[in-house]
Specification:
alpha+beta; 4 strands; globular
């Protein structure tokens, strides 16, 4: 598979560029919930595919996911990067999974931002210092583990009082947060200590669209796992931004 899957001469209506990561899973789940047809374009991030010129033309920040929407006739495609921005775009364009008026709309956006600004960054840092750079980094590991525990507890407490993160209705806040909650046990926390989070996780995971969204990048999971296993030191230095 190439480092970066370039668009074909006649692109499908929606293209999603990504890898097997929680932020990309958010978007495959959202597309499946909306019942939209799309093509998945794998980006080989462990081989610097995200730094190729064609990809940087889509997202100058060199990150996945990126959505390219060709569905408006006679108009140039809409390009969106940053997973929360993509979720908002799709929800507003298709009138689903984001309440149109306050106070429900604000509740969804607040909990979406908790995921985008807190859950993703903090759990991502814990992943790094737990799985990739544990030795000699006790302070960083403890800091991010404590913050991850606080966020897991926050979500558990929220779900003790509400069926979904933004209230009683399933929304893009749930879609954004769900893929990251798979790390709970991997981070060394017990499911029994977060019963409301885990019950919610089971309910979301049982949705047919969620299962389809997870299955959509099953092939990418194997490709990325093998690429990580065989990555050179220079590959990993580039991936982690080490100089």
């Amino acid at each position: 598979m190439p480092l970066f899957s370039s668009p074909p001469a006649v692109p499908p209506a929606i293209e999603l560029y990504g890898m097997a990561s929680p932020n990309v899973r958010k978007i495959t789940i959202m597309l499946e919930e909306l019942g939209l047809a799309y093509a998945f374009r794998h980006v080989a991030v462990f081989r610097a595919g995200q730094f190729e010129a064609d990809f940087l033309a889509l997202n100058p920040n060199g990150k996945v996911p990126v959505l390219v929407d060709h569905t408006t006739p006679g108009q140039p495609p809409v390009v969106r990067f940053e997973s929360a921005a993509i979720l908002i775009y799709l929800a507003e364009r298709h009138g689903q999974l984001l309440a149109p008026a306050e106070p429900d709309r604000g509740a969804v956006l607040q909990w979406l931002m908790i995921q985008a600004c807190n859950v993703g960054p903090m759990l991502g840092q814990l992943n790094h210092f737990q799985f990739a750079a544990r030795d000699g980094n006790d302070y960083a590991y403890d800091r991010y583990r404590n913050e991850a525990e606080r966020l897991y507890r926050l979500i558990d407490q929220r779900l003790a009082a509400h069926a979904h993160l933004a209230g009683d209705t399933y929304s893009i806040a749930d879609i954004a947060t769900f893929p990251w909650m798979a790390y709970l046990e991997k981070h060394g926390f017990g499911a029994g200590d977060f019963p409301h989070l885990c019950a919610w996780r089971d309910r979301i995971g049982a949705r047919a669209a969620v299962q389809r969204g997870l299955a959509a990048i099953h092939e990418a999971e194997a490709i990325d796992a093998e690429a990580l296993r065989t990555a050179s030191a220079s590959d990993m230095d580039r991936f982690f931004g080490r100089r």
